[in-house]
Amino acid sequence: MQTNREFFRATRRGKLLKIVKEVYLREDICCGHKVCTKCEDTKRQLYTPEERARYEDSLSQLIGETVLVLDTNVVLHQIDLLEDPSLKNVVILTTVLDEVKNQNFTIYNRIREVIKDKTRSFYVYSNEHSKFTAITRDSGETPNDRNDRAIRVATEWYKSHLHKLNIKVVLVTNDRDNATKAKKLGMDVKTIKELVFEMSDQFPSLVDKLSSPEDAVDSADPNNASAVSSKKERFSFAEHRPTAVLTEELKQGKVFQGILRTDQTNYTQATVQCHSMNEGKGGEILIKGIENMNRGVDGDIVAIELLDRSLWTSASTVMLMDGQGVAEDDDSVAQDALINVTQTAQQPCGRIVGIIKRNWKPYCGTIDFKGDITRASGIQQLLFLPMDRRVPRIRIRSRQVENLVGRRIVVAIDQWDRHSRYPTGHFVKDLGQVGDKETESQVLLLQYDIPHHPFSEAVMKCLPDPAYMENLTESDMIGRKDLRGEVVFSVDPPGCTDIDDALHVKRLDDGNFEVGVHIADVSHFVREGSAMDLEAAHRSTTVYLVDRRIDMLPGLLSGNLCSLMSNVDRFSFSCIWKMSPEGVVLNVDYTKIYVVGQYLGWQKDPPTLPRLRFAASPSYTQGVRL
Ligand SMILES: [Zn+2]
Question: Region (Disordered) spans which residues (predicted)?
Fold first, then answer.
């Protein structure tokens, strides 16, 4: 069976292009449940036993008595929750997967990792290619409505398909409209919150991972709105202007745009470089105080309006200390707690009137809990204190306070309501005990966004043969000078494995000196634009922690072929000076060379180094002493 899907796309020149996709609908797409016999029959007809084994091995299987079908909004907003291993037996429809891919590629990659993990029983059902569940868009139906309907149709199919086996199918959605329509069709529907609370006796940590925009669905309800506003009347930020308004005001030069750079020690003060200020010459705007910051978080791209010139001032140099002026219920003091200690020159000041793009990421920190843990029961509202002082505290909810106090945890921000002094977020993961070396190392790596994953296969494929230097060819030597006869040494601590530079110095016959600095010739092994080059560019540097080193390049290069070790031939890029005895540079030469290390390393007693080939040569000690 074949069906056509048509859609239109505008070209760059403004013409409409009609795209027709032919889709072949299949009858043999399996529901993915282990005990389903209907699909078993289909499979038996289609595959040889070997093919079937291979096919089944490639998939996760649904196993439980309840199967969950997720709506797109649940995947997009609750990925931390979905990554929790206690959530199992989930159907991901291709409609959902495609929507997630279009809206957020990072989340798409994360859900794919979950699907790959066979212990999780996440099954991808190709509903758009199945004869039983594929639908076409009705005239007048928005793409969104069409996708919602596709999800309902597929859920209904699952329900009737698994009905006789007593397997329950639940549609998990936070879309009110989709839920109402699905319930009308007799489906079992739950919000993610309902689902998680049902599971919370068995898996209490799940509740913490619930992302809070779920409340937004309730508060959008007019019956509920009054309750929310009366409770929070005491404090509110100015409303953010809508994107359309900001776009217009940016064009007219009424507001400026830039990246918010928050003070290292005080999240209520920031500066923004605005390129369009001062007739395009650019300038810096200072933002001071929590109200002018108006929910901007470090890294966000914000829209700023300048304050009246009479209000311009200078940056405050006071650090915001723990708990200073930020008592949970005292909304009046935070701004006043900052006193200017030194006055520097006044500068343009402004306030944030809108957020163009958020740059929220997971933050490491601790729970700020001063009460009696033993008396904390049920769900607690907690304040999370990020280690990064540029970030405000974050409200989270937890049922497991006793497990979180004293731990380094990761928290993500979900939203920042204008009636709340702090953003709200959710618990992502526990990194371990505060003060533990392993935990704190993890914190540093996460906090500073240091890429520390193992090198990919593509990178490892770029590596040369480990015995490369023993099998050199003519082409390796082109343009290289042979300095293997010189006494070349490095000044590195004992045990150093990545010796990236070395020196040599010798007296010339004319009384002058030759001084050379040799840098390992990494470019001989790392080709521009290769996977290894890109990865190294991304990492930028080797990172040294107390107990480990995170290499910029794989160990074969950083600790071997590009390390100027003793007694082995290595390539370097060198700078060689000719100097007078007074140290005046007479000549300089940059060249690629071929050196053999008679590298000394940093040793107290050179003559006890028998490994060095020329340890007995007078030029050796002479070179080092010079
Ligand atoms: Zn089946």
Answer: 214-233
